[in-house]
Amino acid sequence: MRNWILPEYISDVLPSEARQIEAMRRSLLDLFARYGYELVQPPLVEYVESLFTQDDRALDLKTFKLVDELTGRQMGLRADITPQVARIDAHLLNRQGVTRLCYAGSVVTTRPDGILATREPRQIGAEIYGVAGIAADVEIIELMVESLTLAGVKELRLEIGHLGLFLALADAAALSGEAREQVFVALQQKDAPSLHELTAGLPAELAQGLQALAQCYGDAEVLDKARASLPALPAISAALDTLAQLQSALQLRGIAVGFDLSELHSSDYHTGLVFNAYTPGFANAVARGGRYDSVGEKFGRSRPATGFSLDVRALTQLPFPAARPGILAPAGDDPALIATIRALRNAGETVIVNLGVAAGEVEFDRILRQEAGDWQVFPVSQA
Asked: Regarding beta strands 157-162 and 258-260, do their DSSP bridges make them parallel or antiparallel, or are they unpaired?
């Protein structure tokens, strides 16, 4: 094998795309700051016990493992930054009241999340800790929509679900272990034949409810359909009430939503509302999030939490933006030349020193030359 070949679903980021990724990352972090979110930067590698908020099989399977040569303990490359931020909130900051945190960094996964996905997403996200009401979910969804608009997404379809519906039905049916997991997967895939087979031995009302859940997707009338077809369990009524309240609050902010009540997400730390954002031309969700109220329990402080994340690299679009043309300067040790180049760069200009070879991808439309004893900038046409 040639030593420059990269692993599958891993790739380099070349200058034009890297420029777009970095510009988007900076703009999004500035947006988060305007909402009051503070930036944290967790490490790329930790002991595996800290990388999972609870017994999260899905996240465990996605995490690369290695041995720490200093301690002999097992470490992992982070596959998701949310558990790390939960650790920071619960164990390091330990604040009372509301905490808003954001992050940006690479994660590495053992397998891609979907078709054409990478195993090294550039994850960026925002999270609110300490608020149990839907006001926090409304803010997070509003921020997610604004983030996608800032990233250039034109057409957006937002789908919302609630994990509490499945949890209520599964608990009432006493589903556990492998049987619970199989029903979970069948619901995710909307696999009606498998659902019918897997729920055959359950009480009729609960079996019908689980089968109906897979058909509950679409516009606002889905909530009425769910109330009519799902058992009248208190937890189900509460979840549907939350979805209705959320829809009303988002509608006031000009955000249209659809529903997919069998959308349960693949990580085990979500506990309630879940949401995905889709746009034409992308095979997978361009952003996703939800509520994970027990996320800090493993770190000694269980706090209500909600948040979202997206992959900045997945949102890059062709053609990549061209770099702003710079100024071509001659090489030399003239103190006045050195000072002029430094002043231009401090003023925000790109100055490329001519080393006798082509400038490559960095273009220039002006030149720096000495005129009447002074170093001055001229258009290329006057060279």
From this structure: parallel
On whether the CB atoms of residues 51 and 85 are closer than 8 A, the answer is no
Mean pLDDT score, 195-221: 91
CATH hierarchy code of domain 1-152+286-321: 3.30.930.10
**Is-contact 285 278, C-beta < 8 A?**
yes
Higher local confidence (pLDDT), 186 or 54:
186
Residues 56-112: tens digit of each pLDDT? 778 888 999 999 999 999 999 999 999 899 889 988 888 888 999 999 999 999 998
Total residues found in the chain within this entry: 383
Average pLDDT (293-303) is 73
249 CA to centre of own chain: 23
Average pLDDT, the chain: 90
- In angstroms, the CA 73 to CA 68 distance is 5
> Where do the structural domains in the chain lie, given as residue ranges?
1-152+286-321, 157-278, 326-382
Count of CB atoms situated within 10 Å of the CB of 320: 15
Q: Which CATH number fits domain 157-278: 2.60.34.10, 3.40.50.300, 3.30.930.10, 3.30.470.20?
A: 3.30.930.10
305-311 and 122-129 beta bridge pairing = antiparallel
How far does CA 325 lie from the centroid of its chain? Answer: 32
Q: Which three-class secondary structure state does DSSP give residue 127?
A: strand
Joined tokens for residue 281: 């031309």
Secondary structure of residue 180 in the 3-state scheme: helix
* Per-position b or e across 182-217, b if 16+ CB within 10 A of its CB: bbbebbeeeeeebbeebbeebeeebbebbbbbbbbb
Q: Parallel, antiparallel, or unpaired for β 305-311 and 287-291?
A: antiparallel
Residue 74 phi/psi, 5-degree rounding, is -80, 130
CA atoms lying within 13 Å on the CB side of residue 238: 12
In a 3-state reduction of DSSP, which class is residue 246? helix
Q: Are 271 and 238 in contact (CB under 8 A)?
A: no
Query: Is 128:214 a contact under the CB 8 Å cutoff?
Result: no
The pTM for the full model equals 0.88
Q: Decide if 1-152+286-321 and 157-278 have a common fold.
A: yes
